[in-house]
Design goal:
Blueprint (H helix, E strand, L loop, with lengths): L12 H8 L4 H11 L4 H13 L2 H128 L8 H7 L9 H15 L20 H15 L5 H8 L9 H14 L5
Helix pairs in contact: 1-2, 2-4, 3-4, 4-6, 6-7, 6-9
Length: 297
């Protein structure tokens, strides 16, 4: 099969070369596309111009070379794409078969992994149950030991507290006896008689109530009685907190058989709950409320 060539006659080549080496740059640029019609010879000339020339001729030669190369590249790309399409068709068929096999294998792997996971979960649950059992046994033993020690400590604390209270009671009885002497009351007077006398108008300011109050505060807050005065503030001077204040109020109510109202407490504690009242506040409250509940002597 004979392929006709679009290449111009070779005899025209000298004329093209003459224009290519003209003194006019525009003529030379116009001759560039013509030399490409001579196949590889024209391409070689174009490359030589790119390597040796400068200016507008170089730019035009370079653009023409890029354009020719791009067309060639596009043609090769089209041929390559056709080959790739054929290859892709075959590859798709193979991939489809491989995908089906992989899907089947994947399904089998999932089932195997699920079984492994279930086995691991069961093993972990068994291990956790065993650990929990051991921890519970250990905690039970620790709790038993703790309760034993705490009960022993609490018994010792109660015993020490009782001894402390007995001692303070002895001290208050001694203080009362001294008060008897200062107030010219017979030493044979019993405690009940003195408690009755102390509520008489002449005894409302007696130090007996204050002494009893000091003993309570000293016992509750574990502070020496010498550090407690009429102007002592429970929060600022004795560092009593909210819990100390509540326990102190309960002890005072029980000792003096009175009720200290929530309103009164709130006036001195506010939102903080700290006992900002003084010994004088409590002392005057006890006297005023005990006075309302006694019969005239």
């Amino acid at each position: 099969m004979t392929v006709r060539s679009n290449q111009p006659p070779v005899e025209n080549f000298p004329a093209v070369m003459s224009r290519l080496y003209s003194q006019s740059e525009d003529v030379r640029i116009a001759a560039l596309p013509e030399i490409l019609q001579y196949g590889q010879l024209g391409k070689d000339l174009l490359i030589k111009i790119i390597e040796t020339e400068k200016g507008a001729l170089l730019e035009s030669a370079f653009e023409l070379f890029v354009d020719v190369s791009s067309k060639k590249y596009e043609q090769l790309t089209i041929e390559l794409n056709k080959s790739n399409e054929s290859l892709n068709d075959v590859t798709k068929k193979i991939d489809k078969e491989i995908s089906q096999l992989k899907s089947h294998i994947s399904q089998l792997d999932k089932e195997i992994n699920q079984l492994k996971f279930q086995i691991n979960q069961l093993e972990k649950e068994i291990e956790n149950l065993e650990n929990n059992k051991n921890r519970l046994t250990q905690k039970s033993n620790e709790l038993s030991q703790y309760r034993f020690h705490e009960e022993a400590k609490e018994k010792d604390k109660i015993k020490a507290r009782m001894n402390y209270i007995i001692k303070k009671r002895e001290e208050i009885e001694e203080e009362i006896q001294k008060t008897f002497s200062r107030l010219n009351i017979s030493s044979q007077s019993n405690i009940k008689q003195f408690y009755a006398l102390q509520y008489h108008p002449h005894f409302l300011s007696s130090i007996t109530i204050f002494i009893r109050l000091k003993i309570i505060v000293s016992t509750q807050l574990e502070i020496e009685t010498d550090k407690i005065t009429l102007n002592t503030n429970f929060a600022h001077d004795l560092r009593a907190d909210e819990l100390d204040g509540k326990e102190l109020i309960l002890a005072i109510e029980e000792e003096f058989d009175i009720e200290i109202t929530d309103e009164y407490i709130y006036n001195y504690t506010g939102l903080s709950g700290y006992p900002n009242y003084t010994m004088k506040d409590i002392f005057e409250y006890i006297i005023s409320h005990k006075k309302q509940n006694i019969e005239a002597i």
